[in-house]
# Entry
Amino acid sequence: MLDALQNTLDGLFNGTAYALLAVGFTLIFGVLRRANLSYGPAILFGAYAATWLSQQGQVSLLLLGVVTVAGTVLAGAYVERLCFAPHRHGAPLAAMVASFALWMQFEEAATLLLPKHLYDFPALWSGASLSLGPLFLRVETLVLFATAVAILGGLWWLLHRTRFGTAVRALVDQPVAAELAGIPAARTFALVFALASAIGGIAGFLISATFQQVTPMLGMWSTLKGMLAMMLGGLGSLPGAVAGGLLLGLVEAHSQWYLGPQARDLVAYLLLFLLLALRPEGLAWWMGRWTRTRSAS
Amino acid sequence: MSALLAVEDVVTAYGKIEALKGVSLEVAEGSITCLLGPNGAGKTTLMFTVAGILRPKRGAIRFAGTEIAGQSPHAIVSHGIALVPENRLVFPSMTVQENLQAGAYARDDRAGIGTDIEKMFTRFPRLRERAGQLAGTLSGGEQQMLAVARALMSRPKLLLMDEPSLGLAPLVVEEIFSIVRELHKDGTTIFLVEQNAHLALKVAHHFYLIEQGKVTFSGTPGTLAEDEVIRRAYLGSKA
# Structure
């Protein structure tokens, strides 16, 4: 029982990180109906820019965070201009393949900038974990969780209480009608891309500073985990993406403990397979049902 | 009456297939002008070309003297043209109120937008009752009213309407057409695409018949040619 609780607390860190990655992914997928494979590699670019800076001397953690986010947004804008802006109408496959090409570019650029396989990243927190009775909770988990709650709250506000949010939701709902209503689609897409990249950058920074290391695998890891969590949640649903991320993190933590690290990814993909086979709408289906029954009663 | 909208020799193509093969027509300021024609004649293509969703391959489109062909949809909306699209295309997971706000996207006068939403609720009382409801849960007729109200939120000088009666019950169709008349009375110029030719010719001042991407007839309702036009609008000239 204690093990199960401790696993849950440990899984919360990865789960929250996956949730943030999936939210960024979902924003892009929901608005553009295009999968951006370069989403993770753009984060890698930002994290490497910050790592490079930290190699040059004493730099504050806050500045490293800002550099990671700025680098990710810059790389994201590059991806948007090259892969997505030209293929806004039709050719979804071309956009996806182009984003794969940029993935390779970012990995190459990262390894050219910092050629070793592994670099230290300054620690987010160098003190001890908090103890809750017999359980331990990492301070990093708390920081990440609080940041995620703030980001999700801010995102909700942005999407439901601002003019920009109206534009985004209208484009998701009915793209042709949105353009007819005078919503500038190209500009809104570019802004959504920047927003999603910024969220990815924040996640990337907190992940790197928690594990205190970066490798060129960060790009692939972020894309895979983000996409997996997004698919678990049901494509295009933001609450689904959050639920999918948390579920993935928890399932990974438990299966690693009970079945061993080799089984961890196997269990995660098995879960995705089962969910897609039984409920292709993902977790969003259950949440939809929950809200439906709640409003009916 | 001068032409508010002048379409000159417009060609619009999907790949190599030309859906409009040199269309020319005019919509007089203050008029209700109607475009009739059988399925696949190019009516929706023309509407989308004027609204900027499709770019013409050739030809000129002038609105109040300004060339607008090939401009982006949001630029065209800010000139004062709004399209109520075929099948209404409301934003289903947004509330009625939010749909109206989205329609005013091109404007930035917050107070004016609020007053106009209130005006829409007065004109369409059903929408006020459903203000907080998701648009996807409205009936077909209510969605059509919402689509009209949403288009009006941009304060258009020219309102384009593509098949507003499509799939609606006769009583609701009557209601939509009485709204068309009211809007016209309030000074909005209306360019209407309609399959229901009988109904359209009752409200229109002028009509065009389009067949296979070309304007083949134009005239004023009430003339002798009307029966022939109606037959061709429904069946095409080869029937």
Remarks:
- Chain B touches chain A at residues 51-53, 72-74, 77-78, 82-83, 85, 89-94, 98, 101-103, 105-106, 150-151, 153-154 (CB under 8 Å).
- Chain B has nine helices and ten strands.
- The two ends of chain B are 36 Å apart (CA to CA).
